[in-house]
């Protein structure tokens, strides 16, 4: 059965597909993204919380497609920046989706911050909205710290400068399955798996 991810971020779509594919209950779920939906309206995110944004994305998806829809709103919360870039992670340096510029700006903003104060966490809210109107909201969080120069080719966004607690590789250096096992997105999706299976399985 079809499930829409109300996102234009191909890396997110790839990760969610991978996480679904690793859940035996969810093998029949076909995840489609907004690039597969013709003339989908631009939906600027205006919310001040991940939860609010995830719900807005998912509601919009149901409204325009009638499909059960997942919205993922996520970002990096940096202690030394009072939790920023947070919900502004995708456009921190000004241009939406410019991962390299966003990451460089965060590194520059904390260049004077000592190692013991470089804590950060990836955070994710995932909302599932069903055509009947039922809504489910879950969160995931991956705590860690930021290094001083990017490492690794995998993942996306801020992955090359982030090392999860208890690890030595950046999340861009981890195998995809290893990232999924600990990631904010992996946690959130696994928390929703039962509901998705029940409604779409
Ligand atoms: P949609 O709104 O279309 O889903 P988006 O990229 O704008 O796509 P968000 O507003 O949720 O999505 O912003 C997510 C940003 O947070 C993303 O662009 C990355 O910079 C960062 N981010 C989220 N998850 C990440 C991850 O697993 N690894 C690295 N960076 C991540
Ligand atoms: Na956002």
Rg over alpha carbons: 17 Å
Which structural class do the helices and strands define?
Answer: alpha/beta
> Which blocks of ≥5 consecutive residues have pLDDT under 50?
none
The helicity comes to 25-40%
Keywords:
alpha/beta, six-stranded mixed sheet, binds inosine 5'-triphosphate, binds sodium ion, magnesium, nucleotide metabolism, XTP diphosphatase activity, ITP diphosphatase activity
Secondary structure: elements and pairs:
Blueprint: E1 2-5, H1 10-21, E2 30-33, H2 50-65, E3 69-78, H3 99-109, E4 119-129, E5 135-146, E6 162-164, H4 176-182, H5 184-200
Parallel strand pairs: 1-2, 1-3
Antiparallel strand pairs: 3-4, 4-5, 5-6
Helix pairs in contact: 1-5, 4-5
Bound molecules: inosine 5'-triphosphate (ITT) and sodium ion (NA).
Structural account:
The structure is a single chain. The protein has 201 residues and is α/β, with parallel strands linked by helices. It has a single domain, classed as Alpha-Beta Complex (Maf protein). Helices cover 31% and strands 22% of the residues. Strand 4 and strand 5 form a beta hairpin. Helix 1 crosses helix 5 and helix 4 crosses helix 5. The model has no long low-confidence stretch (mean pLDDT 96). Bound molecules: inosine 5'-triphosphate and sodium ion.
Explain briefly what this protein structure is.
The protein has one domain (2-200): Maf protein (Alpha-Beta Complex), CATH 3.90.950.10. The protein has five helices and six strands, in the order βαβαβαβββαα. The protein has helices at residues 10-21, 50-65, 99-109, 176-182, 184-200; strands spanning 2-5, 30-33, 69-78, 119-129, 135-146, 162-164.
């Amino acid at each position: 059965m079809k499930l829409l991810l109300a996102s234009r971020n191909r890396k997110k779509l790839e990760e969610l597909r991978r996480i679904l594919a690793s859940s035996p209950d969810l093998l029949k779920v076909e995840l489609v993204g907004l690039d597969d939906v013709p003339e989908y309206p631009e939906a600027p995110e205006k919310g001040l919380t991940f939860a609010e944004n995830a719900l807005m994305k998912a509601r919009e998806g149901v409204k325009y497609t009638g499909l059960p829809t997942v919205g993922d709103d996520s970002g990096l919360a940096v202690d030394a920046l009072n939790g920023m870039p947070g919900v502004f992670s995708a456009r921190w340096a000004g241009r939406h989706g410019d991962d390299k510029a966003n990451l460089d700006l965060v590194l520059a903003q904390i260049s004077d911050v000592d190692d013991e104060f470089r804590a950060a966490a990836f955070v994710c809210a995932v909302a599932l909205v069903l055509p009947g109107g039922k809504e489910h909201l879950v969160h995931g969080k991956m705590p860690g710290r930021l290094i001083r120069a990017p490492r690794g080719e995998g993942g996306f966004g801020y992955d090359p400068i982030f090392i999860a607690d208890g690890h030595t590789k950046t999340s861009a250096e981890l195998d995809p399955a290893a990232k999924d096992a600990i990631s904010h997105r992996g946690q959130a999706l696994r928390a929703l798996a039962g509901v998705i299976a029940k409604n779409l399985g």
